């Protein structure tokens, strides 16, 4: 158990639907990162939050959004789902403060999303 | 834009050392080298990182060349459970927007019995 909890582990939904993926970071970690991993794309960075604020955006579609709550858990919302959104979605957390070198991320076990 | 270059795959015999190379010829002075691995669809796992000195922990050793343009991850006694994709990543010190880790294709290590 890495300490980063992602729910649900598996999700099957139909095209056009909306889903929410949840991530609870490791205790004490302030940063949350979301990654998408599909078969042909590898691990793609989507978005980062630090202590409730968005810090960096990667290749995140406009149909996707995220937020980090005061208790530091984060949710990734995926809407108008398409077949191509089927992928593993990973959340990672790290202890970071401005100017501090992170010792590395801790990843959760991921949510496998299947869009049918 | 990839900052590291790794061969696509390699294999080694169980019990032998696995030496995984990585080229990062454009690395900047303040950039660290990180290694992660991903075992079959599990979340990537942090292994080790270093700046310029060689590093060792309970999982592996990291050897960085003096010019820092390449490095080698060494798994001293590979087991079947070490079969995974290994990612070499370079990243500078955390500055908010620059804190993300960018994963390339990695190297697939196959440990054979």
Explain the overall architecture.
The complex is a heterodimer of chains A (116) and B (113). Chain A is mainly beta and 116 residues long. Helices cover 0% and strands 52% of the residues of chain A. Chain A has no helices and 11 strands. Chain A has strands at residues 5-7, 10-13, 19-24, 31-38, 42-50, 53-57, 64-68, 74-78, 87-94, 106-107, 111-115. In chain A, the strands form 2 sheets. In chain A, strands 2, 4, 5, 6, 9, 10 and 11 form a 7-stranded mixed β-sheet that branches. A 4-stranded antiparallel β-sheet of chain A has the order 1-3-8-7, with no helix packed on it. In chain A, a hairpin with a 2-residue loop joins strand 5 and strand 6 (53-57). The mean pLDDT of chain A is 90. Chain B has no helices and 9 strands. Helix content of chain B is 0%, strand content 44%. Chain B has 113 residues and is mainly β. In chain B, strand 3 (32-38) and strand 4 form a beta hairpin. The mean pLDDT of chain B is 90. Chain B has strands at residues 9-13, 18-23, 32-38, 45-50, 55-56, 61-64, 70-75, 84-91, 107-112. The chains are: A mainly beta (116), B mainly beta (113). The interface between A and B is medium-sized, with 33 and 26 residues.
